[in-house]
């Protein structure tokens, strides 16, 4: 079953509470929350106090994507702010195994993200211990970029490894997903789809979510 996790990076930041309420009302399964530190990626978004404040507006799962250097410094704060899933980047942490276990010890689900150029091979031994693998299908930092086609092969690789472990893994794909390519991405093995611009386009959230869900 495919789950949709809309990214609020493309929402109106002056009204984030309303945005998450609308996502819940129109059938989103989770809220994807993109945190950027201006060091790991060339952009700065928002952080812990903002997450804490929108936590009051919805019961949806908070799927927090940390695009920050050395994320272990902050995972506890994100957990306390209301994150349900915390995803860290393989490229941003020298001790991934330790940080994954730390996140799980906080009672939060743990995800690992890999940039387009990072091989699946580099995280394959962690697949049995994580709840989610995030295959980035754009170079992180900005919404509205084009899907990088070779990522299809990486999704298939993750799916193959998780099947070999007989594991029900969340396989998330993030970047450049729209109603025209969602079906092929789900067919590769993705089961959690992130979409930012495709959900908030023209401020027609209801119609856009319906379109994405019909698209596969
Ligand atoms: C990119 C972020 C994505 C982004 C997706 O750095 O991690 O979550 O907001 O946006 P779209 O769907 O517009 O590519
Ligand atoms: Zn993201």
TrEMBL record:
Q: Which residues bind a divalent metal cation?
A: 32, 34, 65, 174
Active site residues according to the UniProt entry: 34, 174
User: Which enzyme type, at the first EC level?
Assistant: isomerase
Q: How is the cofactor bound?
A: Binds 1 divalent metal cation per subunit.
The molecular function GO annotations come to: D-ribulose-phosphate 3-epimerase activity; metal ion binding
Q: What Enzyme Commission number(s) appear in the record?
A: 5.1.3.1
Q: Which domain of life is it from?
A: Bacteria
**Key word Zinc present:** yes
| Pathway field | Carbohydrate degradation
GO CC terms in record = cytoplasm
Q: Where does substrate bind?
A: 7, 65, 141-144, 174-176, 196-197
Q: Which InterPro entries match?
A: Aldolase_TIM, Ribul_P_3_epim, Ribul_P_3_epim-like, RibuloseP-bd_barrel
Q: Which cofactor does it need?
A: Fe(2+); Mn(2+); Zn(2+); a divalent metal cation
Output the Pfam families linked to this UniProt entry: Ribul_P_3_epim
Name the keywords, alphabetized. Carbohydrate metabolism, Cobalt, Isomerase, Manganese, Metal-binding, Zinc
Q: Which reaction does it catalyse?
A: D-ribulose 5-phosphate = D-xylulose 5-phosphate
Q: Which family does it belong to?
A: Belongs to the ribulose-phosphate 3-epimerase family.
HAMAP family from the UniProt entry: RPE
Function of the molecule: Catalyzes the reversible epimerization of D-ribulose 5-phosphate to D-xylulose 5-phosphate.
UniProt cross-references to NCBIfam families, sorted A to Z: PRK05581.1-4, rpe
Name under which the protein is recorded? Ribulose-phosphate 3-epimerase
Organism whose genome encodes this protein: Clostridium senegalense
Lineage, opening ranks = Bacteria, Bacillati, Bacillota, Clostridia, Eubacteriales
């Amino acid at each position: 079953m495919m789950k949709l996790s809309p990214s609020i990076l493309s929402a109106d930041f002056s009204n984030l509470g309303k945005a998450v309420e609308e996502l819940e009302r129109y059938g989103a399964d989770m809220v994807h929350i993109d945190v950027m530190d201006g060091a790991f990626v060339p952009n700065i978004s928002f952080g812990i106090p903002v997450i804490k404040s929108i936590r009051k507006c919805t019961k949806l799962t908070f799927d927090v994507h940390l695009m920050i250097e050395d994320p272990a410094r902050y995972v506890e704060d994100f957990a306390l702010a209301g994150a349900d899933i915390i995803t860290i980047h393989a490229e941003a942490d020298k001790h991934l195994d330790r940080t994954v276990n730390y996140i799980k010890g906080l009672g939060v689900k743990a995800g690992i993200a890999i940039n387009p150029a990072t091989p699946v091979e580099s995280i394959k031994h962690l697949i049995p211990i994580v709840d989610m693998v995030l295959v980035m299908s754009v170079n992180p930092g900005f919404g509205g970029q084009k899907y990088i086609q070779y990522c299809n092969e990486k999704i298939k690789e993750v799916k193959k490894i998780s099947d070999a472990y007989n594991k029900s893994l969340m396989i998330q794909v993030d970047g450049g997903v729209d109603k025209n390519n969602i079906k092929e991405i789900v067919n590769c093995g993705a089961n959690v789809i992130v979409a930012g611009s495709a959900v908030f386009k023209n401020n027609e959230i209801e119609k856009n979510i319906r379109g994405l869900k019909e698209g596969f």
